[in-house]
Amino acid sequence: MAKQRIDNPGNPHFYPWPLILVSSIDEHGKPNIITIGASSVCCARPWVIGFAMGVHQYSYELIKRTGDFGVNIPHREQLAGSDYCGRVSGRSTNKFEDLGWTPQPSEIIESPLIEECPVSIECEIVEIAHLGNHDWVMGEAKLAWIDEEILSGRRIDYAKTDPVWSFFGEYWSLGEKIADWGGAH
Ligand SMILES: Cc1cc2nc3c(=O)[nH]c(=O)nc-3n(C[C@H](O)[C@H](O)[C@H](O)COP(=O)(O)O)c2cc1C
Predict the structure, then answer these.
(1) How confident is the model over 116-174, as pLDDT tens digits?
(2) Within a 10 A sphere around the Cβ of 94, how many other Cβ atoms?
(3) In sequence order, what E strands does the chain have?
(4) Which residue of 28, 48, 77, 98 lies most exposed, with the fewest beta carbons within 10 A?
(5) Coil, strand or helix at 61
(6) Which atom of ligand 1 is nearest to the CA of 83?
């Protein structure tokens, strides 16, 4: 394989990650949504989810006040809305109202969830890594709300989902299952 040497590598040199919508709320009860392309599971026990938050984002102010956030995984039907939430700031509008989406009250955290998303997870911030123009925000997932239609027992059947993956200016779909762990040849 002929590999090209890349100096100063960056986002164009990585693969897509699942798109998530991080939900939050201000001190007056106005909910907000930020679209996040860079997110990942950080730890299995406790289950910790992390994501890259631009240090000047309005949503960052909101989640620092409450100490929590909602992680919502959109389906492709919510792609246009997800794109919108990534282009407009909650400083100047109510994105839930703009999209006709419903804030789903959380059970444990103050931030609401997004009713329309098939997966919503209540997270409490446990650690923030200060890295540069983005911080990596890590939240312990306390409670998950998952559409019964995509569940197979206790786990998500990805064949029944239609998530969006994104990185560096493009949206991609998941594709198909190609093997089980330990079963790749
Ligand atoms: C596909 C996509 C992915 C994005 N990923 C991130 C991200 O990982 N981190 C981030 O801070 N902003 C990201 N953004 C930008 C924010 O979503 C955008 O600045 C948003 O308007 C901020 O909303 P707020 O001002 O209501 O907090 C992304 C935008 C899009 C469209």
Answers:
(1) 999 999 999 999 999 999 999 999 999 999 999 999 999 999 999 999 999 889 999 99
(2) 13
(3) 17-18, 20-25, 31-36, 39-43, 48-54, 68-73, 103-104, 113-114, 119-130, 134-146, 151-152, 155-156, 164-167, 170-173
(4) 28
(5) helix
(6) 31
Residue nearest to atom 20 of ligand 1 (CA): 86
Structure tokens at 185: 């040849």
Sort 108 into a burial class: Cβ within 10 Å, 0-12 / 13-18 / 19+: exposed
Residue among 11, 30, 36 whose CB has most ligand 1 atoms within 8 A, to mutate: 36
| Ligand 1 atom at minimal distance to the Cα of residue 88 | 21
Nearest to 159 by CA among 142, 145, 177: 177
* Domain range annotation of the chain: 19-173
With beta carbons less than 8 A apart as the criterion, state whether 59 and 24 touch.
yes
Instruction: Check pocket membership of 57 for ligand 1, CB cut-off 6 A.
Output: yes
Pocket of ligand 1 contains residue 120 by CB under 6 Å = no
Given this structure, which CATH class describes domain 19-173?
Answer: mainly beta
Task: Specify the pairing of strand 68-73 against strand 20-25.
Answer: antiparallel
